[in-house]
Amino acid sequence: MPRTPQPDAAPGQPAPAVTELLRAWGAGDARASEALVPLVYAELRRQAQRALRREGDGHTLQATALVHEAWLRLGGQHDAHWESRTQFLAVAAQMMRRVLVDHARTRRAQKRGGGATQLSLGDAGRAAAVQEAADAVDVLALDDALARLAVLDPRKARLVELRYFAGLSIPEAAAALGVSPATVGREWAVARMWLRRELAP
């Protein structure tokens, strides 16, 4: 990823400007990538911080490293057809999930099977430490469960990724999935129950 920019203006930035840059970047315009960084960096960093907050004590990845690794992977999406800022952030969530899973696998291999990375299945907006500790799961087990859920119900698996790894709100996830917020609310509740059952010891 290019140099770390100053805090971006993404929340107040008109969506069409970001969308136009995304499309130009997808078409191979390297200058569009440079112009895009300051517009989306802060939001990507917020995504990374939300994802890392759900890890247990002792994780070694920092938000900046997670953003940079995800950005490199996003840059490798040569056949991507960017349609909107929300879609871009959704794909960024996928990349962050992959980075976290790869990092957890590496750490586990180094520790010969020990030191599982823990994540919380609590509501994406909830910060209660006690509840998060109660909901902690192994990131690799979660990744496996999400792969199984994707076979049964791809949209619910995508929703978990958007809410859990990207920290998107119900309305943002609804926009990314092209469904109503009410539908997302219902499916989020069902997906969380399914995952808790799958991940129960």
In short:
This protein has helices spanning 15-26, 30-53, 63-75, 85-110, 129-134, 139-152, 154-165, 170-177, 181-199, and strands spanning 118-120, 136-138. The protein has 201 residues and is an all-alpha fold.
By secondary-structure content and strand pairing, the structural class works out as mainly alpha
Structural shape: globular
User: Could you give the order of the helices and strands?
Assistant: HHHHEHEHHHH
Please bin the fraction of helical residues.
55-70%
Number of strands: 2
Report the sheet-strand fraction: under 5%
How many domains in all? 1
Distance between the amino and carboxyl termini:
39 Å
Instruction: Report the total helices.
Output: 9
Sheet with most strands: strand arrangement: 1-2
Q: Mind summarizing the main beta sheet?
A: 2 strands, antiparallel
Low-confidence stretches are 2-15, 123-136
**Mean of pLDDT:** 76
Computed over alpha carbons, the radius of gyration is 17 Å
